[in-house]
Amino acid sequence: MAERQRTGRWRTGQENKKRVIAAAREHFRRGYEQATVRNIAADAGVDVAMVYYFFGNKEGLFTASVLDVPEHPLHQLPLLLDDGTAHIGDRLVRAFLERWDAGDTFEPLLTVWQSAAIQPLARKLLHDTLAGPVAERISAEFGVEDAVLRVELVTVHLMGLAFARYQLRIEPIASTSVDDLVAWIGPTVQRYLTGEVRGTLEPTDGVMHI
Description:
Residues 36-55 bind DNA. This is TetR family transcriptional regulator. It comes from Mycobacterium deserti. Keywords: DNA-binding. This protein folds into two domains: 2-61, Arc Repressor Mutant, subunit A (Orthogonal Bundle), CATH 1.10.10.60; 73-196, Tetracycline Repressor, domain 2 (Orthogonal Bundle), CATH 1.10.357. Helices cover 71% and strands 2% of the residues. It contains ten helices and two strands, in the order ααααααααααββ. It has helices at residues 2-29, 37-44, 48-55, 58-67, 73-81, 88-101, 107-118, 120-142, 147-167, 178-194, and strands at residues 202-203, 208-209. It has a two-stranded antiparallel ribbon with strand order 1-2. Helix 5 (73-81) packs across helix 6, helix 5 (73-81) runs parallel beside helix 8 (120-142) and helix 6 packs across helix 10 (178-194). The longest helix has 28 residues, at 2-29.
C-alpha cells in the first residue's frame, strides 16, 4: 500500500509539473518581465511553493519551460555526435525532419524564438544552454574555428526549413520527401559544421570579392 501511495504521489507530481510548464510557456510568450511565478502557479492550479520546489526560481522555470525544447536542432546534435561524427549533416537533418513529421508540436519551439526575439535574457539563456556548449564540442571534435557561428548557421537554416514546411506549409517544401530534403540540405549542414570557408569578404571600392 505504501509503495502504491508513493507511486501515486510521483505521478501527481509529474502531472503538476507538466501543467506548470504549459502555463509558463503561455506567460513567457507575452514577455519575461511580465510573467510572475505567482500567476503561473495560479493558472496551473498549484501552490507557488511547488513551482519553486520544482524549478528553484523564475529563471529556472523559464529555462525548463521555454529553452529545454527537444525539437530545437541543437538539442539533437549532441545526441547524434555521441554516435560518431560521420555524415553528421545528413543525420541531423534527417533526425530533425523525422521528429517533426512524426507529429511533434511546433508550439514550444515557436515560443523559444518569440521569447528570444524580445527578451535579452532569453537570448542569453538560449546561448548559455544550447549554442555555447554545442559550439565547444564542435570545436573540439572537428578542430574548426568560428564554432559558435557554425552552430548558429545550422540553427537558422533548420529553423527556416521548419517554418516553411510545418508553419507556413510552403510548396513544394511541405510535400518534399525527407530523403530528398536530406539530399539537398544535409551537405550544406555538413559544410556549416566541418567545412572550410572558401574565403573572406573584403571591402574594396564598393565591391565585395570572395
